[in-house]
Design brief:
The chain is 39% helix and 16% strand. The chain is α/β, with parallel strands linked by helices and 358 residues long. The chain has two domains: 174 residues, Rossmann fold (3-Layer(aba) Sandwich), CATH 3.40.50.720; 126 residues, no CATH class. α4 runs parallel beside α5 and α6 packs across α12. The radius of gyration is 21 Å and the shape is globular. The termini are far apart. Bound molecules: NADP nicotinamide-adenine-dinucleotide phosphate. The site of NADP nicotinamide-adenine-dinucleotide phosphate has 29 residues, from α1 and β8.
């Protein structure tokens, strides 16, 4: 019986949340990624409904042998394609294309072979540096991209729009999440894009100052606009939305921007950040302030550690969520509150200090 859900990228931040939702519903899941997904709980490695196969999406048939590939296709009812290279190391798309474009082509081939709908997880940042309203129907508005990741995700999504127009295609749905924040982060979350990276960088500077006997570190300034905002959403809420939308056949052929009704202001983010530290630790400051008072050595170090992400601290783009509202309701994907963000940040700092403890 075709009852399995395939998830490429199931070992990643979003994949783990999606995997957990389906397993909790009693659905068997086939995880396709290079490392086995680690689940939380008493027996993190295994679950009777989880079937992991080593797979590399950059390869035809995802690198699976023909027999395994055919067996997977025979039992798959739905394909979620999440696997992607998500770092911001390279400025242009070329080095990302084997995963973020060819990987999309291979995931579509798998869905076609399985005759199963494809749910592709793109990103809201296919908008690049577009600074006004960005709608579900928008894609190529002549925008520029901040890095090769954004550009490659744009190319991967563009390829699928071509495939969606073909009459023989399986149903294809495109999801564009904003910036995903783990509600229950681990110490390792400091390596992922988003607020934990900044928390980790500031915590490191505070640790090393403390180790040198300096307990009164000044508040560090981060170059950014307090009036700007970020499209933050929690990982479990994204997974809820994906599961809900995938359960509705009408989602086929549509684009969903998985963003909260309101973005999170940088001001609120700063407050939650400092509350998690239990004292003022960092604050946003604009270009003008930095030109009057240049960065001190610690601030310069912080800026270096967070360079690829600096471009996201002055956002004015607004993403519409009309398709999400009409198919899943206005309550789906709520705006993270200050208290929720503070709790997640505190949990990250606690996990981080636990890892450090001898
Ligand atoms: N996190 C966000 O804020 C965010 C926002 C918008 C959109 N998205 C999109 O959501 C999706 C998941 O993102 P994420 O944050 O969960 O990313 P992530 O934590 O970096 O995980 C990436 C996943 O892709 C897999 N992967 C990478 N290269 C692969 C390859 N060659 N073959 C097979 N699997 C490969 C990784 O698995 P292995 O290393 O085990 O192979 C991992 O499971 C991506 O498509 C991303 O563009 C994420």
């Amino acid at each position: 019986m075709k009852e399995h859900i395939v998830i490429t990228g199931a070992s990643g931040l979003v994949g783990r949340a999606l995997l957990s939702k389906y397993l909790a519903q009693g659905c068997p899941v086939i995880a396709l990624c290079r490392k086995p997904p680690i689940l939380t709980g008493p027996d993190p490695a295994s679950h009777p409904l989880l079937f992991w196969h080593w797979a590399d999406v950059s390869l035809p048939r995802l690198g699976l042998d023909p027999v395994t590939y055919a067996e997977i296709c025979a039992k798959t009812q739905l394909v979620f394609h999440l696997a992607a290279r998500t770092d911001f190391k390279d400025a242009t798309a070329a080095s990302y294309l084997p995963v973020n474009l060819a990987g999309v082509e291979h995931a579509l081939a798998l869905a076609q072979e399985a005759k199963a709908p494809l749910h592709h997880v793109s990103t809201a940042f296919v908008c690049g540096d577009w600074s006004n309203e960005f709608r579900e129907i928008d894609l190529d508005l002549g925008q520029h991209f901040r890095n090769g990741y954004e550009e490659s995700k744009f190319l991967g999504e563009s390829f699928l729009h071509g495939a969606m127009a073909a009459p023989s295609s399986v149903p294809i749905t495109i999801h564009r999440p904003g910036i995903v924040v783990e509600r229950n982060p681990s110490a390792g979350s400091g390596k992922t894009f988003g607020p934990f990276l900044f928390l980790d960088a500031v915590a490191r500077l505070r640790d090393s100052a403390e180790a040198k006997g300096n307990t009164t570190l000044p508040v560090l300034r981060v170059q950014g606009n307090r009036q700007a905002h970020l499209p933050l959403i929690f990982d479990d809420a994204v997974a809820d939305a994906l599961v809900r939308l995938a359960a509705q056949p009408e989602s086929g052929g549509q684009v969903f921007q998985l963003v909260a009704p309101q973005p999170v202001s940088n001001e609120l983010l700063e407050d939650a950040f400092n509350e998690a530290f239990g004292q003022p630790a960092a604050r946003f400051a604009g270009d003008e302030e930095f030109s009057h008072q240049p960065a001190n050595p610690l601030e310069a170090l912080l800026a270096r550690k967070t360079t690829p992400y600096a471009a996201y601290l002055d956002l004015s783009v607004r993403f519409t969520r009309r398709n999400l509202n009409s198919l899943a309701g206005a309550k789906m994907l709520p705006t993270p509150t200050r208290a929720e963000l503070t709790r997640a940040f505190q949990a990250f700092l606690a996990a981080r200090s636990q890892r450090k403890a001898p």
